Amino acid sequence: MVAANVFTQLRRGTLEYCVLALLRGRERYGFELVRALGDIDVLVTSEGTIYPLLGRLRRDGLVETSWQESESGPPRRYYRLTAAGRRALDGFTEDWVRFRDSVDEVLAQGRQDDGRE
Amino acid sequence: MTVVNDPNTLIDDYLARLERAAWVLPPDRRTELVEEVRAHIAEAGSDDEVSVRTVLDRLGTPEEIVAAAQDGEQVFAGGQAVPGGHHPVGGAAQPERRLRARDIAALLLLPFGGFIFVIGWFVGVVLLWSSDRWRTSEKWLATLVLPFGYVGVFVLGMMAGQTCVSGPESSAAGQTATVAETCSGFALPLWLGIPLLAVQLIGPALVTGLLAQRAAPGRG
Questions:
Q1: Contact at 8 Å (CB) between B38 and B78?
Q2: Half-sphere exposure of A46 (CA within 13 A, CB side)
Q3: B60 touches chain A (CB under 8 A)
Q4: Crossing angle of helices B190-214/B136-144, nearest 10°?
Q5: Of B43, B44, B64, the CB nearest to A49
Q6: Are A74 and B36 an interchain contact pair (Cβ–Cβ within 8 Å)?
Q7: Rg (CA), chain A
């Protein structure tokens, strides 16, 4: 329960940036994006909940969408990073590295102290 | 209870459940969400029962998806909404009320608070700016369209209200009495005064209505 909660808490602040990161190189349509996230370990447990997140990112101006023809069916809605989205992602990337390093440091410190006892 | 095996029925049932759960969302977001999920299932292109069930399982329950849309938070394992800032732990995500008592107070104090020794209007402004129900642009609009609300109408009325005293005046020469007018106060020309008065009367009502309509949690 506690372990599950850790992932839940971590996802809350990071998942939207994982979405932005997947869009950094190229635009993707909803299904493609959601499946890509869903295939990565521990990031998503319910793929459907990504769609409301995408809507929020669009309303916040971090991604934009366009409809494009598909060869195999109806038109697809593609998601693309905006300039604001790119800035948000860059900012997060820096912050994340700092944060991760700090946590690693504290965890390592804890292990060292434990070894001395 | 019958066991559903037909893949198309499974999908239809799922989408119907999603639509039912999504009634709490604003209509445009509800339609968009259902269409996105419908497209997702179509893209998955499954046509046998097992693979359709897998697609639906990976999506999560319709209730989880709607809770994620409602809460402003992702929903994860266990079918329980991650408690957002305002939601009780483990409680079903209730849509937050759009206007709390304090927001209604702000909307009343902005047009009418000026009458409470003017300070009422300032209280309204503080309540307005500290609320998350409106965007910054809307807050500026409400603050600037009519400073002091309807009190402005009275100020304008005073400015336009020329007080004129007319009466017979005897001329120094004691000849025919002439009628003279003495006016005090500062007059606005009618062509300016009347439209200005109209704007002052309608402005606060329009802005208050607009704010009441747009208010929603987490906008500003």
A1: no
A2: 27
A3: yes
A4: 150
A5: B64
A6: no
A7: 18
As given in the structure block, the two tokens for residue A39 are 């295939």
Which tens digits make up the pLDDT trace of B19-57?
999 999 999 999 999 999 999 999 998 889 999 999 999
Tell me: the pLDDT tens digits for B71-85? 653 333 333 444 443
ipTM for the complex shown: 0.88
Listed by start position, the domains of chain B span 7-81, 102-214
- For every residue of B17-30, which 3-state class applies, written as one string? HHHHHHHHCCHHHH
DSSP B45: T
> Mind listing the pLDDT tens digit for each residue in A16-34?
999 999 999 999 999 999 9
Three-state secondary-structure class, residue B176: coil
- Yes or no: say if B145 and B207 are a contact pair by the CB < 8 Å rule: yes
Tell me, what DSSP letter sits at residue A117? -
Q: Which domain holds residue A109?
A: 2-116
CB contact under 8 A, A8 and B77: yes
Written as six digits, the tokens of B69 are 């849309």
**B82 to chain A: closest CA residue:** A8
> Measured between alpha carbons, how far is B212 from B6 in angstroms, rounded to an integer?
47
CATH of the domain at A64: 1.10.10.10
* Residues B87 and B93 sit within 8 Å (Cβ to Cβ): yes
Is the per-residue pLDDT at A13 higher than 60? yes
